[in-house]
Amino acid sequence: MLVLVFPGQGSQTPGFLAPWLELPGVADRLRWASAVVGDDLLAHGTVSDADTLRDTAVAQPLIVAAGLLGLRELLASPAEVAGAAGAVAGHSVGELTAAAAVGALTPEQALVLVRERGRAMATAAAATPTGMSAVLGGDPDEVAAALAAHGLTAANANGGGQVVAAGTVEALAALAAAPPAKARVVPLQVAGAFHTTHMQPAVGTLEALAAGLEPGTAAVPLAANADGELVSDGAEVLRRLVAQVSRPVRWDLCQEAFARLGVTGLVEVPPAGTLTNLAKRSLKGVDVLALKTPDDLERARTMIAEHGGVVRTTTPVEVGR
Fold first, then answer.
1. What is the dihedral of CA 116, 121, 123, 126, to 10 degrees?
2. Cα 266–238–77 angle (5° rounding)?
3. Of 19, 62, 219, 315, which sees the most CB atoms within 10 A?
4. What 3-state class would DSSP assign to 87?
5. Which residues, 6 or more positions from 65, have their beta carbon under 8 angstroms from its beta carbon?
6. What are the chain's domains?
7. CA R_g for the chain
8. What separation, in Å, do the N-terminal and C-terminal C-alpha atoms of the chain show?
């Protein structure tokens, strides 16, 4: 069984979209996405520097637009996704991309939501100097105790011995100065403490906006960030998308859901690499591919042929829990 995964903030790098713009129609679709989000995604995907791409209001729309563009070159519609994959998941803002990929949202709905999400989270992040750091290795209990001692939140539990701590810059600096035994603390290039209570103001903004949407049923179940539950009902997908802004991402549980389904192949859409690396550590024996450039499309099509088809061993969540 094949799964598709969609990366989150921090996966973007300067110039990563340039190779994709050589394909027919991609630049035109990116101009349309730019009009929807009110920013020049063409420039951000090709010539903007790392500092510009670190801006939450820039990075989030760019990541969602890039994911949708890359996926369209491989699978042109939710129906085609349903024929190829048994499940999908997106990390943080990538969950919006995943929702659009399976038809729970339209691409335009996803782009409007990510535009407002990025702006609201940037505003929330500006209220207090906060950030995030990856904690690599160490005993899980000792890592948890260290985070609690410093008043930090485990904002991302990514599996494979990686936890992302989030909180004030002072608390993160204190953690880096005295890391847990056998652990490394690596600051991340993000603008705030995402997926913590620091982002609660952004939740209200998205709740008000989401009230006017009419989501569709997902063509393929989505493994939700909060708990790895497989969700198909569009209203439930949308509710979870709004709530996850201030709640931890349990990517470890999403990967466990894939394992229970019997995943044999995993393809990560652009800007790809981060989730593929996590899968290599947590989903041993699974064939993985980071779809970084158009040169990877042929290999991705081969993987669909080898691993594609829908195989489900659990029942998707159809109503709110």
1. -160
2. 50
3. 62
4. strand
5. 30, 33, 34, 37, 41, 45, 111
6. 2-125+197-307 (3.40.366.10), 126-187 (3.30.70.250)
7. 18
8. 27
Yes or no: say if 10 and 274 are a contact pair by the CB < 8 Å rule.
Answer: yes
pTM across the whole model: 0.91
List the structure tokens of 258. 């894939």
Instruction: Kindly name the residue from 11, 34, 48, 92 that is annotated as catalytic.
Output: 92
Residues, the chain: 321
Per-residue pLDDT of the chain (321 residues; tens, 9 = 90+): 999 999 998 899 999 999 999 999 999 999 999 999 999 999 999 999 999 998 999 999 999 999 999 999 999 999 999 999 999 999 999 999 999 999 999 999 999 999 999 999 999 999 989 999 999 999 999 999 999 999 999 999 998 888 999 999 999 999 999 999 999 999 987 888 999 999 999 999 999 999 999 999 999 999 999 999 999 999 999 999 999 999 999 999 999 999 999 999 999 999 999 999 999 999 999 999 999 999 999 999 999 999 986 443 333 444 333
Half-sphere exposure of 24 (CA within 13 A, CB side): 0
Residue 288 in contact with residue 265, Cβ under 8 Å?
yes
Tokens in use for 157?
């539990």
- Whether 91 sits among the annotated catalytic residues: the reply is no
Which two tokens mark 67?
């994911």
